[in-house]
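Researcher: Next entry in the queue.
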Amino acid sequence: MIVRLPFPPSELMPNRSKGVHWAALSKVREKYRNDAFNLAKATPRAEYGDGNIPVSIVFSTPDRRGRDLDNLLASIKHGLDGIAAALGLDDRRFKPLLVDSVLGEKPGCVIVAVGVHVTTTIGEL
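Model: Structure for this entry, 125 residues:
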């Protein structure tokens, strides 16, 4: 299953979330999780059986600013939770995780491939 999520809001970036009131941040997290849940529910999917499920995540950034992959991954934690909930799975089964980023165009996006490994090169998305 491949789900195309919107690029995470800046409030969800770990380095940017400092100073954001917890109530406002909670609403942003909930909206991103619900959006991911709804997008995953609308996507055809396979059965995943037992055991680990490989997940590939590719960030298509909306601009040329440098971003750390670990921060990008942290910013979509609630999106991954939403996808797992839509599949009726525990997100602890999402391993291994392959995380990459490519330069994209506004507004950017996140491609989450559940059950497959995706490799990237610049310009592929």
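Model: The beta strands are 2-6, 53-61, 94-103, 109-114.
Researcher: Noted, moving on.
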